[in-house]
Structures are given as C-alpha cells and as structure tokens.
Fructose-bisphosphate aldolase, class II
Amino acid sequence: MQIGAGDAHRVLKVDGEVGIKRAYDPRTWGKAAEAGMAARVGVTCENLRSAGQ
C-alpha cells in the first residue's frame, strides 16, 4: 500500500505494521453495531408481541 504525505493522519501502526486508522477506531464500528443491535431488539420485541408496551 502506497501512503502519501497527505494520508499520514489516517494511518496507524499496529504490531509494527501500518493499518488504516478508521478500521481500528471504535467509534466507526460501534455505530454500526449499535444500529444492528437496535434493529435486532425491535424484531425480537415484535416476535414476543411486546413492541410499544
């Protein structure tokens, strides 16, 4: 992977190797996990007929 001078702020060194910073940032995958969990809880509430109560 070629990294230019403008990309230095987006790069993270993990275990001596260069990685993409946003892949390791918990805010990035935390938002997706929260949205997925909220959808799953909604489906479960509907299945248990407890939605909106």
Notes: Strands lie at 11-14, 17-20. The chain has one domain: 7-47.
